[in-house]
Design goal:
By secondary structure, the chain is of the alpha/beta class. It is 36% helix and 20% strand. It has a 5-stranded mixed β-sheet. The radius of gyration is 13 Å and the shape is globular.
Length: 98
């Protein structure tokens, strides 16, 4: 199962990552801002443990996953089927996979 998250939510879930990873959940942060250098600096500064990708502004991923606001959290299974887009926090996410 994968969990896509962006924006300031990364700070809220940093402490949960180890527990989520043990449950088979991977966090994938996908940045769609307009500056790769800002993304690189923030990635180093935040020292995120999870996968952190840069897609760039107006990337196809925004239309593919109907992203209309940030941060957007999407739970998909290993076949990339969307499971949920409305969970509020890590506790709710864990309930989704039980």
């Amino acid at each position: 199962m994968y969990w896509c998250i962006g924006g300031f939510g990364r700070f809220l879930y940093k402490k949960w990552y180890s527990n989520l990873k043990l449950k088979g959940i991977e966090i994938v942060g996908i940045n769609v801002d307009d500056g790769i250098s800002k993304w690189k600096k923030a990635s180093i500064k935040d020292s995120l443990s999870w996968i952190n990708l840069y897609a760039g502004a107006n990337s196809k991923i925004q239309t593919d996953y109907n992203v209309t606001a940030f941060p957007t959290k999407i739970v998909v299974d290993k076949n990339f089927k969307i499971i949920d887009v409305d969970f509020k926090d890590a506790n709710e996410l864990l309930k989704l996979i039980e």
